[in-house]
């Protein structure tokens, strides 16, 4: 897990938010890497590594997952990071897939595919 990986994750997140968010996203959703908190930078790098790891251990065949499965994987990895960094997170931070807004699900799938195509 490197800063470079975290930055790639963040770039994919911002691109997804700009593509899928209805209306104007909150500034924090699209803030640049340098404005992110340390925990969020660490989490982004970690989740990037987890997606890369899944692709590696499957010899790239995890790319055959459905778009929803890809997004769910990113979502679960991110939720695990939330629990790592917050003892009692807000429910919206750890919402299950079905409870997440469409823009967030689409953005998570975009992140997986961006890492897949690196």
Walk me through the topology.
Blueprint: H1 3-20, H2 38-57, H3 67-85, H4 102-116
Helix pairs in contact: 1-2, 1-4, 2-3, 3-4
Structure description:
The chain is built from 4 helices and no strands. It has one domain. It is globular and about 35 Å long. The chain is 61% helix and 0% strand. Helix 3 packs across helix 4 (102-116). The two termini are 15 Å apart.
Number of helices: 4
Low-confidence stretches: none
H-E order: HHHH
Helix fraction, binned, reads 55-70%
Care to count the β-strands?
Answer: 0
Oligomeric state of the chains?
single chain
Q: Strand-residue fraction?
A: under 5%
Span between termini? 15 Å
If you average the pLDDT, what whole number results?
96
Could you describe the largest sheet, including whether it forms a barrel?
none
Q: What key phrases describe this protein's structure?
A:
mainly alpha, globular
What's this model, at a glance?
The protein has one domain (3-116).
């Amino acid at each position: 897990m490197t800063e470079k990986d975290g930055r790639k994750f963040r770039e994919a997140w911002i691109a997804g938010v700009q593509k899928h968010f209805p209306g104007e996203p909150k500034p924090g959703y699209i803030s640049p890497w340098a404005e992110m908190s340390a925990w969020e930078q660490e989490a982004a790098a970690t989740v990037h590594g987890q997606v890369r790891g899944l692709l590696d251990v499957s010899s790239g065949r995890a790319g055959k997952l459905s778009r929803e499965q890809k997004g769910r994987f990113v979502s679960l990895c991110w939720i695990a990071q939330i629990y790592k960094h917050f003892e009692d997170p807000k429910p919206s931070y750890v919402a299950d897939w079905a409870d997440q807004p469409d823009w967030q699900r689409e953005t998570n799938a975009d992140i997986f595919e961006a890492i897949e195509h690196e």
